[in-house]
């Protein structure tokens, strides 16, 4: 006899599963109805609604009447719309008030400042960028309320001595201009906190008179032609950030430990062959970035894992500069390269700060930018 073959009617199997599916759906429906009538579900809904209202800063009196909480979605939407409308009105009013004290100018069609500016001596901020303006007028001394001079990416070749009359000035940004010197009178701006001269390419020194700037916490003189750290910088007792990268430094001063508040020191793209032991006396220094290919000597304590210092030695690969026939194109290309370089390092440093388990010494990090 051959093997027995069991034959099932497929309709029977299908009917069996259809019955099971119907029972499961009926159970699901009953469970949903039970939860709908459940007091716990109502309480959970109310608590979620209250939590959402608190998160959005909505007062309790708005959604709670006589002890009963209105969990209507329409109510929440209405409250949000009213709240956003109020915030928008406040924001517009604030922007309107602030714009009365802010002067903005941009575009290459501007070759000089408008004559009407002379009459607006109440201004507290100038934001002038991407113009062909070469001269800042002497009447700038009339703007006694000036707090911020933001003048990047222009053609400014010199700053007037009258800038020293701006006693309330806190920030001066002249990056990507054509400055070859900084007026000594800037040392009279005793409330200055930030000085940014990045990318002028021809700056070789800062005047000694800037030693008077005891409130300065940020100095960026990168992408210039400094052969040494300016003496005035070493006397800025509140300095926390110093970027002197991409210059012609061969060494650091032995008294660099004067800068006891210094936290970040950027020295990459220079010609340093050694780092002085005085760096070990900077107790607040947490980030030191140098170009490593020229270094032949450095304090071994810089690599000690017990120190909070993040010492980063970058492999500084050569960058070929493409020369253009048009001088302006060459300048723009150089500015773009420097800007990209700066943004890359900024992102890299931010990444270092966010890492909690970063080793204290990172060696030979490839830093090749072919721009």
From TrEMBL:
Record bears the keyword Repeat: yes
Pfam families: LRR_4, LRR_8
GO cellular component: cytoplasm
Keywords for this protein: Leucine-rich repeat, Repeat
Cited InterPro entries: Leu-rich_rpt, Leu-rich_rpt_4, Leu-rich_rpt_typical-subtyp, LRR_dom_sf, LRR_domain-containing
Name used for this protein in its record: Leucine rich repeat containing 2
High-level lineage: Eukaryota, Metazoa, Chordata, Craniata, Vertebrata
Gene giving rise to this polypeptide: LRRC2
């Amino acid at each position: 006899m051959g093997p027995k073959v069991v034959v099932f009617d497929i309709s029977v199997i299908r009917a069996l599963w259809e019955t099971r599916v119907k029972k499961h759906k009926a159970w699901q429906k009953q469970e949903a109805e039970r939860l709908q009538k459940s007091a716990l579900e109502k309480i959970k809904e109310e608590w979620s609604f209250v939590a959402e209202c608190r998160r959005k800063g909505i007062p309790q009196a708005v959604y709670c009447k006589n002890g009963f909480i209105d969990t209507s979605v329409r109510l929440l939407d209405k409250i949000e719309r009213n709240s956003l409308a109020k915030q928008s009105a406040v924001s517009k009013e604030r922007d309107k008030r602030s714009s009365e004290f802010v002067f903005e100018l941009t575009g290459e069609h501007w070759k000089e400042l408008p004559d009407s500016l002379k009459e607006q001596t109440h201004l507290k901020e100038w934001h002038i960028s991407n113009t062909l303006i070469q001269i800042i007028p002497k009447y700038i001394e009339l703007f006694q309320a000036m707090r911020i001079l933001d003048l990047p990416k222009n053609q400014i070749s010199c700053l007037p001595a009258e800038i020293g009359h701006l006693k309330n000035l806190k920030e001066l940004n002249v990056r990507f201009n054509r400055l070859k010197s900084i007026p000594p009178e800037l040392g009279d701006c005793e409330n200055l906190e930030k000085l940014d001269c990045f990318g002028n390419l021809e700056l070789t020194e800062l005047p000694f008179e800037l030693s008077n700037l005891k409130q300065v916490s940020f100095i960026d003189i990168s992408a210039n032609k400094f052969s040494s750290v300016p003496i005035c910088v070493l006397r800025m007792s509140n300095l926390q950030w110093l970027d002197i990268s991409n210059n012609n430094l061969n060494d650091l001063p032995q008294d660099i430990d004067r800068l006891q508040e210094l936290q970040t020191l950027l020295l990459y793209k220079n010609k340093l062959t050694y780092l002085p032991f005085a760096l070990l006396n900077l107790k607040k220094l947490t980030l030191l970035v140098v170009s490593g290919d020229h270094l032949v000597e450095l304090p071994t304590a810089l690599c000690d894992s017990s120190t909070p210092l993040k010492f980063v030695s970058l492999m500084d690969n050569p960058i070929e500069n493409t020369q253009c026939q048009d001088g302006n194109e060459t300048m723009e290309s150089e500015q773009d390269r420097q800007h990209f370089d700066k943004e890359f390092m900024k992102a890299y440093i931010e990444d270092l700060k966010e890492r909690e388990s970063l080793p204290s010494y990172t060696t030979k990090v490839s830093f090749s930018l072919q721009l």
